[in-house]
Amino acid sequence: MDGCIAGVRERATWDQRTGRIRVRETSDRTSGTRAPDGQVTATPDHQPSGRQEEIGKEQLVVDTLYARLDELRAATRARLAGVRRGGPSGSPQNRSERDAFATLYEDRLAQLESVEERLTFGRLDLDDDTTRYVGRIGLSDEDHASILTDWRAPAAQAFYRATAAHPDGVRRRRHLVTRGRSVTGLEDEVLDLSSDSASQSSLSGEGALLAAMAAGRTSRMGDIVATIQAEQDAIIRSELAGALVVQGGPGTGKTAVALHRAAYLLYAHRRLLERSGVLLVGPSLSFLHYIDQVLPSLGETGVVSTTIAELLPGLVADGEESPEVARIKGRASWARIVQRAVRARQRVPAADQHLRIDGHDLVVRRSDVRDAIAKAHRTHKPHNLARVPFVREMLGRLADQYLAELGGPVAPEERAEVIDDLRRQREIRIALNLAWMPLTPERLIEDLFVKPHRLAEAAPDMSRADRAALARPQGSPWTPADVPLLDEAAELLGEDDQAARAQAKAEAADRAANLEYARQVLESSGAGGGIVGAEILADRFGGGGSRLTTAERAAQDRTWTYAHVVVDEAQELSAMAWRALVRRCPTRSMTIVGDVAQTSSLAGARSWASMLDPLLRDAWRQATLTVNYRTPTQIADTAQRFAAASGLPTSSLTSARDVPGALVLAPVPVAGAVGPEVVARVRAALAEFVGPDGAGRVAVVVPAGRVGEVREQLVEAHGSTPLLAGPAAALPGALAAALTVLSPTQSKGLEFDAVVLVEPAEILAATSGASDLYVAMTRPTQRLVVVHAQPLPGGFAD
Ligand SMILES: Nc1ncnc2c1ncn2[C@@H]1O[C@H](COP(=O)(O)OP(=O)(O)OP(=O)(O)O)[C@@H](O)[C@H]1O
């Protein structure tokens, strides 16, 4: 393809008067031809050229890229069909190889399908007169020459990092705006300081960025791959080793950055990460639902996402409890409490116990039990596994008593028979259980809450009041704060994994052979397309038809250890929850994003150092995000003033944009007038921000106890309108509707075009009220309407 690629310089700015983005255009005159190797060479062109002409030229390039994408899709489909045609015949080895290839091609196809939207979004014109297109995926032409650079590749880094002061070999950066497969706009930044039109903005791709920020919200978070900013890119590409804490105020892109970092790490360290997987921990299922499109849109599906409540496979923790009880359960001291509770089930009886077995007198002696317990402890195995040597030792000693009564020499087989016999005796089983009880984690933890003497024994330092607060009836549902305690117990109790170990040994030998074969296959066919490595393919060869992905296998296994863990809203996690996560990531390679000013959990972090130092010591580093991409200046400044007045530990924050009239204070004279005012404000917000295409979201954020009441008022006013989400309990679906009513905690991590905030003084008065109110104030992308009868908290007014 030959083409003259001329440049225009467009500058997009926020028009304060109209509240819209305005785009200015200047010509910058560059042209280029495409060489046979697929690289586009840019040369100065002194012919003035129009914007449409320029768009037309980019359209040709974009058409070429999509054509290549279509070709690759067709080729992969054909390969898949070929494998499927093979049918279910042949040896088991042949069948499992065919399944492995089918999965490989299905994954590749899914990846090629996922990049349809905005396949390419950027172009770099380099000092060496070459041009590089940047996109969601890397593509090469038939001659293996690169025609599109994956955004995660080192060669794409300059697209996000180059500035006029540090151009990094880039003369001009162009953002391509596309709709479907059509190019609809361009935005250029000249990074050559000697040029008149050198970019002055500290934001990269300002127009595209402003457009992304101003777009109507939907029920799902979108990716930011086309407009990642330099400070975000530095975090995304930060090295894999160690724990990276990303602190940043509301709307600084922490969630977005965490997800893009997961995608980047999977690309840059695929061999290391693909087998053990990446764990993503979010605050709630509704939040995970909100973000669950981002990674697939970046071509990644191999991430296990969960909440702390869902961490244990098969355990449902949907019970509720007061924040105060959750705080008590989150304390680090539970590590010792659970340990003591386990030890309390290994005890020397108060007196020797006399048993009569088959007409013989046997004594379960205190001294024997003491010795057997000590011997079992020396194995350093978990409780249930160490019970095996304990029982063996005790049965041996009892058998010796039994045989001594018989007198005379004893053959080893005879001794073994006696031991077997004794093992089956009910009285002996009871006596040994009393000394060393086999336990499940559920039984151990429930007993602590149900039997006050058990808790008193395991937690002698806990106050009476705290112990009383934990008491609950048997059979109560598990709560999220119980989960880390159950995990701690499971770790100390252990499971009998003998059979699993034997099987693993047999599988290891097969695997070595499969691995070698998989390497050869990938080398000779290039079939992986970068989405799968030899290790995974080898696992699939050996899978006997099992189609479980790494993510699926990991999600079913409590003891799975991940190569990397990403934690969002990390400030909410208790010390015990951190222990459960660190246990799942022995390398401590973690991305931890959060804001200690937004902590609402009483067990959560008020400072990263005090929460993480005890666990990670100095193996963590901190980065800070400083630009708020969500909230307009007026709202963000008010939130910052309020936070400062309330003593919250805020980070410094600058808003990326200003939207006139973003903050509206709506006082009403009496409490009874709040409801009607909310109804009227919601009606206006829906009319202004929700479009016929379904884009645009409005939330009413109310004091926690008033969600039901305000919802009723809205239902009454609007009828049972499909606009309004169901009751808050059905939250995962709540964001599908244009309007939703939430408590401040439920709104955490989410965002809306407009938020109607009800009675802030009442929100402030609740437990963790200051951080909850700070969270609620910082949810809107366009407008915050504050409806109040009570006086506004400090900092709301200038
Ligand atoms: N570089 C960017 N380009 C476009 N949009 C961005 C960029 N960075 C962040 N955003 C947008 O800003 C909004 C806020 O981002 P995000 O939710 O990740 O922030 P956060 O720091 O996690 O916020 P909070 O702490 O309030 O939950 C999102 O809509 C996100 O898509």
UniProtKB/TrEMBL annotation:
Residue positions binding ATP: 248-255
Principal EC category: hydrolase
Signal peptide from the UniProt entry: none
Region (Disordered): 16-56
EC number: 3.6.4.12
GO molecular function annotation: DNA helicase activity; hydrolase activity
Key words, A-Z: ATP-binding, Helicase, Hydrolase, Nucleotide-binding
Domain of life: Bacteria
Biased composition (Basic and acidic residues): 16-28
Extent of Polar residues compositional bias: 40-50
Domain UvrD-like helicase ATP-binding: 227-632
Protein name: Helicase IV
This protein's encoding gene: helD_2
